[in-house]
Predict the 3D structure of the following.
Amino acid sequence: MNEQKLPIPDVRPPNRPWQPIQQNETDIATITFYHCDPKSLVIPIRDISNRNDAKHDPNLETLTYGLFSHCFKKERKGIVEKGITTQFFSTTRANNTRVLTGYYHPTWYCRINNDDYAIAAESARFVSPGYALSDLLSFFEGYPIDQFFYWKYIREKKVIERLKLLINSAPDATTQYVAEIHRFEDLSLKQYGRMYSDRLEGFSWKYAGELMRKWGLI
C-alpha cells in the first residue's frame, strides 16, 4: 500500500520555516549586482534568456533572494547577522552601464543550512529603466556608488537615503518586472523546451515548499 503524501504547507513568510530578521539600529545597506536579460530592451529584468544559465534572483515573484539560487552567500549572511533592512539592486545595460533598479526590505530569513540563509522581503520597489550610476556621482558627493563587483556594504547614511529617494521618486514598476519575467519564461519554454535549466515552470511558493520539504526544513 502506497504511503499517502502529506500536503505541502503554506511556506510564505511569516510561516515556518521563516524567522524575523532582528533589525538593528544601524545605517548599513547592501547593493547587489544581477545579470540583466539583453533581450528585455526596456525593463531590466534578470537574465532569463540565457539558455545555459538562466538567472533565478532577484526573485520578484516571491520577493526572495537566495532561496532558489546560491548567489552571494556572504551578503545574505551579513543581512541576517547585521539586521540590514535595505538591499539595493543594480544591473548592467548597453555599453556596460551600471544602473540602479530597485530595492528589497529584507524582513525574514530561512536557514538553509548551518552557514547559509535565504532572504524574504516584506516589500520591494523596482523602477524602469533605472538610473545610470555613473551619472549620480555628483548627487552622491563623489561617493563611488558605481565601483563594486557583485555586491558591497553601504555604510553612509546619506547615500542610503539618497538611493531610496531616487527609487521612491520614480513610478513603481515592480508589477511590470514580474509580467516581463513571465513573458520571457514563456519565450524560453517555446524556444528551448524549458524555462530554466532544470525547470519547465517558473518559481512559486508551492515550489518553495517542495524544496523546503526536500531539504528537511518542514
In short: The longest strand covers residues 97-113. The chain has a mean pLDDT of 93.
